[in-house]
Design goal:
alpha/beta, 346 residues
Length: 346
């Protein structure tokens, strides 16, 4: 069994603990962590926190939570490290930042080549669902599904200005249950879940909807979507992104054939429950971590610190350039980290 530090998102912590591993979670997004962080840390402060918990990890995993890096100077840590990059499309700093790690897991397949071209060891590691409903017969499915179409998610995210207008336009063409918050009760009653992504990516909503037994209507066939799911058999064919008439037409056509829709939804549920759960991803992650541990893979990074620090300085520089005036203190933190990394190793 391994001692695992999980930085950023703690979504895999329950599955890792269920496998018998000791997991310590640290993150900035809310308080659902063993150690909540209120601001990013230097590597020295980070190690002091671990020492205070008497926790010497075998492996560290940084799981992308859409936030800035929680620790600077991670390249010097003396254990294997894995980076799970999810929102690569809106975080270009992920590419140079990955030099602090032995391996990068890339959620969106079409970005995998970018990491490989930068010299990173990387593989495709799709997202997953943390909850799966019990399987249903066609009659049970039809009886339980009293919501024709639903969307649950952030309704007006800053990085997706087109979402709210799209959802409003769709609702003018077809009834839509549109909410924020707990998706499970809604998705368990929905026949179709309408997905809307930030950049055509395969997001958690894809897997969550299918895990709850709903039929998925997604807005993009890219980033490995058609390698994961068979359109027309396990998911509905993708609609044209940000085109309400395309989505409404697809919904009307699918709802007009309820038995076929039930069969498609149940096929999608079976696939996700078998292959795309948090438990399945945790097992994959542990196999990789064990290989890195056995190979003492971190030693090559520690022998290459000057070069890696130069490369990491560009990650901090990108972050400093992107942060707005309202986060001036955070911007200064990463600007100083970039300058220090460059000065020490140029």
């Amino acid at each position: 069994m391994m001692r695992v530090v999980l930085l950023g998102s703690a979504i895999l912590a329950p599955a890792l603990r269920a496998l018998g591993h000791s997991v310590l979670t640290l993150g900035c997004m809310g308080d659902a962590f063993d150690i909540p962080l209120r601001h990013p840390l230097s590597v020295e402060a980070f190690r002091a926190l671990l020492a205070g918990r008497d926790f010497e990890p075998d492996v560290l995993v940084l799981a992308d939570d859409g936030n800035v890096p929680a620790v600077v100077g991670m390249e010097s840590l003396p254990w294997p490290q894995i980076f799970f990059s999810i929102d690569t499309f809106c975080n270009p700093w992920h590419l140079p930042f990955a030099h602090a790690f032995e391996f990068t897991l890339v959620a969106q397949r079409d970005f995998l080549s970018l990491f490989a071209n930068e010299g990173h060891r990387a593989r495709w590691f799709p997202l997953f669902c943390c909850f799966t409903s019990p399987a249903q017969s066609p009659d049970e499915w039809l009886a339980a599904r009293d919501i024709p179409v639903a969307f649950v998610g952030t309704l007006n995210p800053k990085n997706i200005p087109g979402r709210q207008p799209f959802l409003r336009a769709f609702a003018a063409l077809h009834p839509l249950v549109c909410l924020q918050g707990d998706f499970i009760p809604v998705f368990q009653r929905a026949r179709i879940v309408l997905n809307q992504s930030a950049a055509g990516e395969i997001n958690y909503r894809c897997f969550e909807s299918m895990g709850c037994g709903a039929a998925l209507l997604h807005d993009s066939p890219y980033h490995g979507f058609t390698d994961l799911f068979a359109e027309g058999a396990q998911v509905l064919p993708a609609y044209e992104r940000f085109v309400p008439h395309s989505a409404a037409s697809a919904v009307r056509e699918a709802l007009a054939r309820p038995r076929e829709l039930a069969a498609l939804a149940m096929a999608g549920h079976e696939l996700v429950a078998a292959r795309h759960t948090a438990a399945a991803r945790a097992r994959e992650l542990c196999k990789l971590a064990e290989k890195l541990l056995c190979a003492r893979a971190h030693e090559a990074r520690l022998a290459d610190l000057p070069r890696r620090r130069l490369l990491l300085s560009s990650a901090y520089g990108i972050l400093a350039a992107e942060l707005p005036d309202g986060l001036a203190s955070l911007r200064s933190f990463y600007r100083d980290a970039a300058a220090q990394a460059y000065a020490e190793n140029s």
